[in-house]
Amino acid sequence: MPKKIEKSRDGSIILQEDTPEKMEVENVEVDASEDFKKTPVYIYYNWCKKCGICVSFCPTGTLGRKADGTPYVKNPEKCIHCETCDRLCPDFAITGAKK
What we know:
CATH class of the domain at 47-99: Alpha Beta
Number of helices: 2
Radius of gyration: 21 Å
Shape: globular
Order of helices and strands: EEEHEEHE
């Protein structure tokens, strides 16, 4: 019988023979070199699932949706940098730049 070493917070028992497995992580480089004075919100389109939450909850109407559901910065001058889009995005695909 394997020797018990410790108990984790969730209650599962960690055994001596259990070893952490290594996993490979894909490193995705994102070009975030856009000027945030022109675009107060940066959208990572490869992460976005086009749910429309950011567009629906934007208090000033800064964001809009294209025909396929993709969000875009419709009125950059209206952005008040409240970061509501940033906080509500389930995929972390949008970032509101601070002033």
